[in-house]
Amino acid sequence: MTTRASVSPRVGVIIPALNEAASIGKVISTLRAQCDYPIVVVDDYSSDDTGDVASQAGALVLPLATRLGAWGATQTGIRYLLQQGFDIVVTLDADGQHEPDALPTLLESVIKGSADVAIGTCPGRVSRLRLLAWMMMKTTSGLRMEDITSGFRVYNRRAMEVLADARATLLDYQDVGVLLRLQAAGLKLLDVPVQMGDRCEGSSRVFHSWLVVSRYMLQTLVLGLSKRRLSARMESKT
């Protein structure tokens, strides 16, 4: 007789992608060499061949009819895999920075149940300026995660349900706002040290211009300040 505890959880991979035709194929093939989990690429209304390249590489592609941004695309993938009955999802970027070799280590704590969310952390990958930005975000939000902008994450089903909720739809980015939602729901978040490489091609959606960075920082700091009291209250209960 097969017990529920002996059944392996269904794990799926979500890759939000915007104009990543130059790198998405390599990301998928590298991931395929590491695991056989279903891969879902959410094409965020790209103007290049991102969707076609991803499909040819063996991923299931969910094309968006309008651009939703990194978090909107990620949430679409989470909702899809939740509807398909998956228990755990992995999110990673389409630019090749996240190393699939780190996937077993990142998954371990969530599969064993010691954490609801595991975040791949690699502070050494960033400049002093970004570290300063992180410090400001942590101060205003009360978050204690090491790398709060990492998109290399693992969510269990409980976390998936929190992030699929309509209240999470308004979040503009998938870092601080998402972490605050998870923290407010009383979920356990865990830092997992991993290695990260450089982008294969192109530039970051956020950190490619001072105008975008300034807007991002303003939104994030305001969000952090507005939610800090709630986060502190939830932390006191755990």
Using brief descriptors, characterize the structure shown:
43% helix; seven-stranded mixed sheet; alpha/beta; 238 residues
Description:
The chain is α/β, with parallel strands linked by helices and 238 residues long. The protein has a single domain (8-237), classed as Spore Coat Polysaccharide Biosynthesis Protein SpsA, Chain A, CATH 3.90.550. Helices cover 43% and strands 14% of the residues. It has helices at residues 24-34, 50-56, 69-83, 103-112, 128-141, 157-164, 176-184, 210-237, and strands spanning 11-17, 39-43, 60-63, 88-91, 117-121, 153-156, 189-193. Strands 3-2-1-4-6-5-7 form a 7-stranded mixed β-sheet, sandwiched between helices. Helix 3 packs across helix 6 (157-164), helix 5 crosses helix 8 (210-237) and helix 7 (176-184) packs parallel to helix 8. The protein is globular and about 40 Å long. The protein starts with 10 loop residues before the first strand and ends with a helix. The mean pLDDT is 83.
Summed up, what is this model?
The chain has 238 residues and is an alpha/beta fold. It has helices at 24-34, 50-56, 69-83, 103-112, 128-141, 157-164, 176-184, 210-237; strands spanning 11-17, 39-43, 60-63, 88-91, 117-121, 153-156, 189-193.
For the largest beta-sheet, the strand count, sense and barrel status come to: 7 strands, mixed
CATH T-level fold name: Spore Coat Polysaccharide Biosynthesis Protein SpsA, Chain A
Strand-pairing-aware structural class: alpha/beta
Our estimate of the beta-strand percent is: 5-15%
Low-confidence stretches: none
- The tally of helices reads 8
Helix amount: 40-55%
Number of structural units classed as domains: 1
Query: Can you give the mean pLDDT?
Result: 83
Quaternary: single chain
Q: CATH architecture, please?
A: Alpha-Beta Complex
Question: What is the rounded distance between the termini?
Answer: 36 Å
The succession of helices and strands, N to C, reads EHEHEHEHEHEHHEH
